[in-house]
Amino acid sequence: MSRNLVIVESPAKARTIEKYLGKDYQVLASYGHVRDLIPKEGAVDTQNDFAMHYDVIERNAKQVDKIAKSLKQSDTLLLATDPDREGEAIAWHLMELLRDRGLLEDKDVKRVVFHEITKRAVANAVAHPRSISDDLVNAQQARRALDYLVGFNLSPLLWKKVQRGLSAGRVQSPALRLICERDAEIEAFVPEEYWRIEAKAEKDDTPFSARLSQLDGDKIEQFTINDQGGADAAYEKLIAAAQGSLRVATVEKKQRRRNPSPPFTTSTLQQEAARKLGFNARRTMRTAQGLYEGVKLGDGDETGLITYMRTDSVNLANDALTEIRQTIGDRYGDKNLPDSPRTFKTKSKNAQEAHEAIRPTASARIPSEIKGYLTTDQFRLYELIWQRTVASQMVHALFDTVSADLAADANNQHLFRATGRTLREAGFLSVYKEGRDADDSKGDDDDDKRLPPLEEGETIKLNEIVPTQHFTEPPPRFTEAALVRTLEEYDIGRPSTYAAIISTLQDREYVEMDGKAFMPTPLGKIVNKFLTDHFTRYVDYEFTANLEDQLDAVSRGEAEWRPLLAEFWERFSDQIEAKQDLSREEVAQARELGTDPETGKPVIVRIGRFGPFVQIGSKDDEEKPKFAGLRKGQDMDKITLDEALYLFNLPRDLGETPEGEEIQVNIGRFGPYVRYGKKFASLKEDDPYTISKERALEVIAEKKEADAKKLIKHFEDAGIKVQHGPFGPYITDGKKNASVPKDQEPADLTLEQCQEIIAKAPEKKKRGRKNAKTSASKKASSSAKTAKTSASKAKTSKSAASKSKTGNGKTKTATKKTSGSKSATGSKGSTSSASKSKTKTSRSRSGGSPSGGTASS
Length: 857
Prior knowledge:
By secondary structure, the protein is α+β, with helices and mostly antiparallel strands. The chain contains 23 helices and 31 strands. The strands form nine sheets. The protein has a six-stranded antiparallel β-barrel. It has a four-stranded parallel beta sheet with strand order 2-1-7-8, with helices on both faces. A four-stranded antiparallel beta sheet has the order 20-21-22-23. Helix 5 (134-161) packs antiparallel against helix 16 and helix 5 (134-161) packs parallel to helix 17.
C-alpha cells in the first residue's frame, strides 16, 4: 500500500515520476481531461447563473475508477497535473469527482507543480505543495463556457444556412478572418512599376555594385523612377556625367551589434520549428510533449529533456542560468560569455512570469551526444531548443559596416550608395541564427558583403550602369509560422491552442495549403463573410483580444467570471435570435455569370451542401434546374460564363465497346467514372471532360481484368457470385453479402450452399442519399431547435445574468457518461463540442449521374 497517490496527465510521465519518488508513492495518469460539459443543450445554464453541468468522459472513466480505488488505500492525494490553467482545471475536476464519491474525507489533498521532469524538480515540488487555485479554475471554466456558448449556438446556424458539418469558434473564426482578409488583399492588389539603377564598379580587380540614391540633388525614393522613359532619361544623364568613372565622395565606417533572441516560448518555438524544421504546430507540440515527459537515455532511466512546453514566459531560473553559463565557458570559451546573465522581458502583456521559458533541463546534455536515444523529430527539436537557449546567454555578434557615396559628377548631384558588411566577432551566431518569415521587413542578411578598401576623393572604374524594371508584390499568404506570430501579436487566443485552431481550419476545409501557405477555400470565404457580415463583433480582433484580457484578469483574481459570461451572453444571444430568419440565398453568395445561350436561363455560381457549383435556371422555373460541380482548382469567385457552361458537357457518350456496351463518362458522388453497359469503372487520373474513347476502353479493360481475378464462381441464372473481397472470400446476390465459412473451400461451393448461406445472412444496412437526407434533416432540425431555444431564452436569462453571483459557486455534475471529451481548448487532445461529427460529402455533381449526383440548394 502506497501512502501517497500522485496524479499526472500521461502514463509516460507517471512511469518517470514514480521512479523518482520511490516506493511510498504510487503515480497514476488521468489521461488528460476526466470530465467535460455534457454535449447537449443546457450544459451551460444561462438561466441559472451560468451553472455548468459536467459529465465523466467515457474514454477516461475506467482510469477515474482506478484512481478512486487506489485513493481508498492512500492517505494523501497529490494532484500533479500540468502547471498551466488547463492542468489546474483537470486537477480540480478530478478532485470534484472524487469528492462526489465521498472519497476525500480524512484525505490530505495537495496541488503539486513542477516545470521540468527531473528528480530534483519533482522532489522540490512535492516538498512545497499548495492548494488548487480557484482563480485559475474559474478562468478555465469561463473560457470553456464561452467556447461552448459560441460553438453550440453559432455552429448549428452555419449548418442551417451554409452546409452541415461546419463549425464556428471564438478564436478559430478570427483566425479564418485573418487568412481571408490577406487573400482579399492579394486579389485586390494592383502592382506598381518602379525602376532601380545600379552602377557596376571595380577597384583592384574587385567588382562591386552601388545603387542610385540621388539624382539632380534629389533623394531617390521607390517610385521616383516609375517608367521606361524616366529610366532611359536618368541612364543617359548618368552616363554623360560619369564618363566611365565614379569618385568616392564620402566613406563612413561603423560597428553594429546584434543581440541574441530570448529563449523559446510556446509561440516562438512553433514559429521557428515551422521555419527551420518544416514542422506544423501540432507536430511541434507532440514532439515537445515527448521531450518534456521523458526519454530513456543510456543510464536506463527516463528523463525529461526540456521544461514545460506551454509557456509565454522568457525567464530562466537562476540554477539554469548558472549551468548554461558553465556550458558556454566550457564549449565556446569565456570570451563568448557576457559579464552577467542576460535577462529578457516578454512582449505578451498576459504572460505568466512565474513560469520559465522552454529550455533544456540540463544544458550539459549536448544534442549530438544523446542523438542515438532520440527519434529524428525529437533530436531536431531538442537541438533547436538547446541552441536557442545557449545562444540567448552568449555575447552579441559584432559586424563591421561601411557605406560609401560614389559621385558621378563634380558637384555631388548624382550619387550612388555602396554598402558592405563583415562579421568581426560571431558571438552567439556561432551557435544559433534566427529564421525569418517572408514578410518580415526587419530581417537582414548576416552573410558577409565585402567592399574593396575605399578612400575619399579617389576615382574608381565604372564598368556599366544598369536600369532594372520592378513591380511591387502583394503581401505573402500566411505560412503557419507567420499566422502564429500574427495571432500572438493581436493577442488572439493563447499559444497552447494555436495547433488546434489551425487543425480545425484545415479539417473543416476552410483553408488549404498552397505550398507552405494557407489559402482560403470557397467554403472558408463563405463562412468568413457570413460571420463578418452578421456577427461582426465576435470576429473582431480587438474584441477577441479584450475578451482574452478579461479571462486573464479572472485568472489573476482581479475579476469575477460569471459577470463576464453574463455580459457576453446578453448581446450574443440577441444576435443569434435575430439571424434565425436569414435565407440560404442571402448566405450562399450566389453570383450570376450570364445567360445560357441554349435556354435563355440565367447561369449562377453558388455554394451548396456539397461545395461550390454552377446552376442553369432557378427553382421557380417549370423545368428542374441543371447543376454541375466546379472542377478541382476552379474558384467560384473567378469562374467565367464560358468555363461554367463547359461544366455541363457531361455526361459524354463515347460510343460502344467491342461487345456492344454503351460507353459514357460522367462525375458522380464518388468522383469521375466511365460506365460501360450497367457497370462502372472509376477514373483515377483521367479527366472526364477530355478522356478519349481509346483511353476509356483501356480503363474498361483494366476493370474487367480486375473483376475476373476477383470472381471465384458465378451462378449466372441465379445471379449469385462467389468473389474475393478485402476481408476474404464472400458470396453475393447483389442484395446481400455473406462471408464464406472458414471450413469451406470457396471454389467448391454449390448453388444450394450459396443460397443457404445468403438466406442466413443479415440484411444490408441501408445507406445512400435518401437515408442520409432523412438523418441530416433530423439532425439539422435538432440543431436548429437547440440554437433557437438557446437564443429564445436570452431575455429570460438576462435578468438572471444581471443578478449573477460572483465566486466559484457550486457546480452541478451529471451522472450519465458521455462518449469522449469535447474540450474546446484542443491542447489536451480533445475537440470542440460544437461540431462532434463531420459529414462526408461529394465534391462534385452533374445532371444525370446514376449515383445521385445532383446538387441541392
